[in-house]
Write a sequence for this structure.
């Protein structure tokens, strides 16, 4: 193996510093890691998945099964990278994977000795047995099995790079930048369509790049590329793979923006995920050469023939000096000729009984030897090919006589080509088999919006490739309304023969007894041998989908790229059926692996989901509040004083409210404007209680049910005007209530003239609670807030700091309390005004933890009680429900099961001892077993500063009749059992004297 | 009278961020002169027309095209709802036409620059290319899972109306995605 002094498309003036396993490689700009490895004579690139067999570089593209490496280091370390697609750059470091302690001496290679025992299904047959605890046993064994078998290892380090998502829309998406794709893009672009042309390689050209540089094909490529680059309506994306085709004419692309440099610089993203919405798509994805099956066909030094030509003509690397080219079709003759002209000794072993003289002449004119009716029975050598046993074969590939051993360091194989139909198959259905060419192709259907052209459609020659692409580009553009002058179709250039011409579907070489010589692989990536397919057949597998899963052939990242047809052909042969009768498996996205980072984009960490902030948020942060998540909101949890933790802080804050006055930011409450002449009727229907008598200036507590009769939400609604109401909901259910209301108005209640609009963002809200709250607000507003003027459930308008506000008299804490509603932009100003003015009243802010303690003391329900399983009766709210009108849920809440006397109902629990209960604990009687669901559960829990003990709210069966009973509170997660006395949920001020005062 | 505090005030600090030697776009905010929703029912068009006319607006526009007059812009956000930016529509609530003050409910993020459409395409699953999203048009869509209204003012200038409590998060999503383009943040005017 060596780098040629001339030729190729590399830039010899730009040497690169590239290493593999610590050894420096002679790389240049334009190389891949694989081409640099070959240039350096590296034959051993990795170890196989299961048997840890030595593997070399088998291909030059995305189908590579063996040269999978670790790329880069530290936090940019990336496993399972195909060396064949890794673009070389200065500073590239690569290491081998799945080998220990080293690539050359891999302990895991011992698996190869035991391979007769490690056939398909071995693990499941061996480790999952009919004995007790077999699942547990398997899970333990699986840990070790996965360590022994496997691929690369990821690192547990944060990815330092950023990724981007982008949406794009176009008339015509052209997938593939080879001759067909370029022709399609040219036609569509000339017609005036908006075109996106994507190519996974770092250069346009596709198979043209494997032709000798500066040949006729290059002139063709330059001309077409230049024209495309000058079209404003054509966007060309190189280094971009279309990995998925989805419903709705949507395609997923990955653009490797900075994978060809050591690290992204200047804030550039590493990769970009494109979601393309294309009205039409042209699939010009070419074809992948098929392997041939023979003994040790996975040995380093065995390579796809077309790839050997690619390394020669594109990267100026002669992959072998003594080359056996073995084929069943004509396409390999160009390979043989090019290799021979470059100085290699080449022998063509053609499996076919007859090969036309003109095809043979392509090779012989270049100095190669042609053996017709011969194939390679086995690759010989240790860690790399040293020779090939070549035998005469019959039309089925079976040896017909003694072979001869030919010295070889490269066996270039061509079993025909498999059109890359993956995207089409993902989108529509399984492809159809085409006898001519022995391959699967997309079904041609004009109704499809994704259609194939060129080699992916098994075009017969280059002229056909170009004309198919041009015609489909024209048609696709026309279907989108682009009908500009498309001019003439580009003329074809001279090229070698295609595989379909005279192909013989011989895919394997066997001994005279019909068995392969040694291990013969159909799937290199998963170490699936032909004997595994045979075994699956013997065990009764008749479906290709089952065969795939049992043997793992074609699974995971291979997705049938190399393994598909050979496995199917073997199965067909064993079942005495044709390949079309056996069928093919389903290709699934992604076509090639996609990084998690690109899927995630910027939506990680604190941008995993959007965050919602109160208009007063900054004040809380500036004044030392510890924040907590409440749904999407960030809320002040507590305001610690020096040395305080949560427990001390919230107890202090709650006690302060009971004694003086506190204020809390309740801007997070859901707020909905209910407007229209039928607003009262709307409220009457959606709430369980009546609303038609609510006067302007008053507000009322309401509860609403789901249609199935369970409680959905509660809150207070104020009547601002004749047809204008202000509904408040819980923080958690705001969106749900709004959507529910809108749904009803647009479906069941279209007769109502009502609009509901969220005004949560319009209003900041501050709850001022405590015995001094009236005095404080009176002082600040100069407004009469006396009990007589503003009794409970009334509101009034006032000014605070020059800002017009609305003050609602209502209490969540059980204290004398008000809610102040402020236009959001003035929220902080009003908060600060109150804070300053509140100093003489010892006003303190309090957080959600203290708020929870206060409401639990009062027995007010919240999210933990309105959790979807509780009814009005369960929560002691049945008295609110009107019997004089229907409301949402009014029928189904009467279901007998919801009215059973034994249902758990809301109770208070006084916890014995110094330890508080945990929410979610299960309630059991004081004696007896603690098994099953018990008698109920703890919903909310706190330490009550007012009572000086730990208390909780819970739902308890027959709770109404169990006051005074001692029960057990069992926390199975924490393995803790407490005792509690059942009491009324209204622990504090049950008569409401404080809040109504 | 106190000053209206923008939820974006802490974000809008003048400076250049992200890719150096690139200034793909400018991000800032502006105050709304006032934002009102008018909503009605079956006879909404006739009920709304006097209000629109009084503001100099021909009509309520379509779901894609905003209407603009001196001191007023109208976006039809639903068949029977129009959002109007104006100081005050001088309108009393009536049974057939309800008005709602949303002046504090939205913040405006302004985008301007050659990369502004690229940035939008990173976050919005609609076609924002010049042919599909022209000056005067608007979309109601989502950015970072938050419902927003994007108004195209000219070829590379956009207003994004965002619910105020989400504004900070949407700003950050835009900002982070804008860094590769080079972004200049503008101080609150």
């Amino acid at each position: 193996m060596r780098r040629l002094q001339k030729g190729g498309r590399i830039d010899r003036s730009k040497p690169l510093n590239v290493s593999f396993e610590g050894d420096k490689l002679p790389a240049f700009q334009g190389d891949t890691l694989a081409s640099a490895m070959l240039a350096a004579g590296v034959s051993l690139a990795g170890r196989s998945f299961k048997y840890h067999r030595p593997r070399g570089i088998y291909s030059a593209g995305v189908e590579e099964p063996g040269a999978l490496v670790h790329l880069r280091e530290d936090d940019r370390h990336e496993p399972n990278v195909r060396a064949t697609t890794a673009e070389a750059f200065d500073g590239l470091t690569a290491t081998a994977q799945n080998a220990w302690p080293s690539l050359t001496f891999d302990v895991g290679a011992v698996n190869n000795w035991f391979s007769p025992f490690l056939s398909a299904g071995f693990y499941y047959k061996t480790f999952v047995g009919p004995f007790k605890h077999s699942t547990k046993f398997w899970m333990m064994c699986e840990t070790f099995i996965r360590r022994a078998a496997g691929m690369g290892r990821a690192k547990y380090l944060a990815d330092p790079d950023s990724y981007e998502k982008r949406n794009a829309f176009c008339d015509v998406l052209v997938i593939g930048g080879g001759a067909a794709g370029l022709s399609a893009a040219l036609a569509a672009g000339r017609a005036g369509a908006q075109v996106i042309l994507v190519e996974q390689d770092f250069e346009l050209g596709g198979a043209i790049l494997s032709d000798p540089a500066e040949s006729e094909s290059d002139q063709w490529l330059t001309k077409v590329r230049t024209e495309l680059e000058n079209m404003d309506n054509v966007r060309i994306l190189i280094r971009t793979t279309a990995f998925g085709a989805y419903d709705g004419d949507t395609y997923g692309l990955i653009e490797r923006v900075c994978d060809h440099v050591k690290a992204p610089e200047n804030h550039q993203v590493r990769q970009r995920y494109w979601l393309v919405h294309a009205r039409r798509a042209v699939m010009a994805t070419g074809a992948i050469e098929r392997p041939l099956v023979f003994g040790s066909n996975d040995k380093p030094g065995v390579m796809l023939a077309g790839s050997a030509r690619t390394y020669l003509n594109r990267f100026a690397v002669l992959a072998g000096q003594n080359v056996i080219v073995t084929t069943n079709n004509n396409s390999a003759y160009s390979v043989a000729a090019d290799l021979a002209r470059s100085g290699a000794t080449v022998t063509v072993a053609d499996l076919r009984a007859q090969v036309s003289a003109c095809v043979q002449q392509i090779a012989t004119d270049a100095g190669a030897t042609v053996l017709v009716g011969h194939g390679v029975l086995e690759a010989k050598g240790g860690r790399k090919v040293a020779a090939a046993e070549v035998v005469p074969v019959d039309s089925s590939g079976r040896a017909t006589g003694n072979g001869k051993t030919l010295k070889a360091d490269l066996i270039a194989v061509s079993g025909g080509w498999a059109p890359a139909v993956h995207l089409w198959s993902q989108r529509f259905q399984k492809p159809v088999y085409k006898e001519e060419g022995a391959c699967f192709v997309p079904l041609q259907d004009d109704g499809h919006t994704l259609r194939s052209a060129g080699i992916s459609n098994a075009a017969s020659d280059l002229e056909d490739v170009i004309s198919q692409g041009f015609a489909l580009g024209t048609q696709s553009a026309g279907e989108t309304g682009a009908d500009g002058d498309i001019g003439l179709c580009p003329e074809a250039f001279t090229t070698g023969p295609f595989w379909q011409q005279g192909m013989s579907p011989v895919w394997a070489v066997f001994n005279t007894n019909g068995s392969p010589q040694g291990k013969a692989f159909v799937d290199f990536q998963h170490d699936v041998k032909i004997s595994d397919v045979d075994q699956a057949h013997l065990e009764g597998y008749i479906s290709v989908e089952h065969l795939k899963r049992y043997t793992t052939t074609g699974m995971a990242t291979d997705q049938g790229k190399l393994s598909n047809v050979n496995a199917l052909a073997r199965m067909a042969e064993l079942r005495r059926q044709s390949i079309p009768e056996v069928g093919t498996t389903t290709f699934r996205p992604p076509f090639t692996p996609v990084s998690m980072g690109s899927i995630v984009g910027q939506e990680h960490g604190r941008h995993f989901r959007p965050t919602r902030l109160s208009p007063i948020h900054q004040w809380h942060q500036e004044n030392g509040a510890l924040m907590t998540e409440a749904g999407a909101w960030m809320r002040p949890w507590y305001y610690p004083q020096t040395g305080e933790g949560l427990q001390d802080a919230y107890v202090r804050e709650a006690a302060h409210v009971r004694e003086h006055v506190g204020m809390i930011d309740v801007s997070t409450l859901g707020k909905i404007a209910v407007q229209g002449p039928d607003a009262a009727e709307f409220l009457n229907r959606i709430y369980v209680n009546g609303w038609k008598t609510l006067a302007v200036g008053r507000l009322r507590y309401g509860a609403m049910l789901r249609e199935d009769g369970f409680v959905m939400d509660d809150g207070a609604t104020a009547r601002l005007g004749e047809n204008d109401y202000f509904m408040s909901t819980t923080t958690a259910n705001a969106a749900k209530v709004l959507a529910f209301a809108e749904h009803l108005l647009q479906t069941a209640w279209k007769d109502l003239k009502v609009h509901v609009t969220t005004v949560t963002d319009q209003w900041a809200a501050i709850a001022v609670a405590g015995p001094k709250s009236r005095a404080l607000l009176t002082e600040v507003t100069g407004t009469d807030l006396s009990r007589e003027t503003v009794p409970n459930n009334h509101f009034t308008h006032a000014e605070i700091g020059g800002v017009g506000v609305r003050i609602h008299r209502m209490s969540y804490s059980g204290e004398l309390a008000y809610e102040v509603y402020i236009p959001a932009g003035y929220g902080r100003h009003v908060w600060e005004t109150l804070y300053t003015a509140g100093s003489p009243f010892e006003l303190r802010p309090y957080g959600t933890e203290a708020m929870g303690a206060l409401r639990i003391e009062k027995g007010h329900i919240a999210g933990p009680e309105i959790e979807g399983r509780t009814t009005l009766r369960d929560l002691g709210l049945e008295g609110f429900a009107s019997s004089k009108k229907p409301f949402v849920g009014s029928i189904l809440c009467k279901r007998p099961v919801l009215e059973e006397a034994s249902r758990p109902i809301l109770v208070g629990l006084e916890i014995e001892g110094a330890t508080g209960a945990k929410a979610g604990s299960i309630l059991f009687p004081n004696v007896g077993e603690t098994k099953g669901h018990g008698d109920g559960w703890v919903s909310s829990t706190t330490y009550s500063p007012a009572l000086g003990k730990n208390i909780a709210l819970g739902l308890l069966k027959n709770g109404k009749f169990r006051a005074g009973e001692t029960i057990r509170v069992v926390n199975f997660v924490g393995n803790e059992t407490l005792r509690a006395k059942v009491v009324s949920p209204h622990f504090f001020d049950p008569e409401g004297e404080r809040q109504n005062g | 009278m106190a000053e209206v505090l923008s939820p974006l005030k802490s974000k809008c600090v003048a400076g250049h961020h992200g890719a150096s030697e690139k200034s793909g776009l400018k991000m800032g905010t502006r105050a709304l002169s006032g934002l009102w929703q008018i909503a009605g029912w079956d006879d909404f068009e006739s009920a709304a027309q006097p209000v629109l006319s009084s503001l100099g607006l021909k009509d309520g526009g379509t779901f894609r095209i905003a209407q603009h007059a001196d001191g007023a812009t109208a976006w039809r956000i639903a068949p029977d709802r129009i959002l109007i930016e104006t100081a005050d529509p001088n309108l009393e609530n009536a049974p057939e036409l309800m008005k709602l003050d949303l002046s504090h409910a939205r913040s405006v993020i302004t985008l301007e620059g050659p990369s502004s459409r690229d940035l939008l395409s990173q976050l919005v699953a609609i076609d924002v290319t010049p042919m599909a999203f022209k000056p005067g048009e608007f979309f109601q869509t989502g950015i970072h899972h938050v419902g927003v209204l994007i108004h195209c003012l000219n070829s590379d200038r956009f207003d994004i109306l965002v619910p105020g409590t989400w504004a900070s998060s949407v700003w950050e999503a835009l900002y982070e995605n804008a860094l590769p383009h080079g972004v200049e943040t503008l101080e609150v005017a």
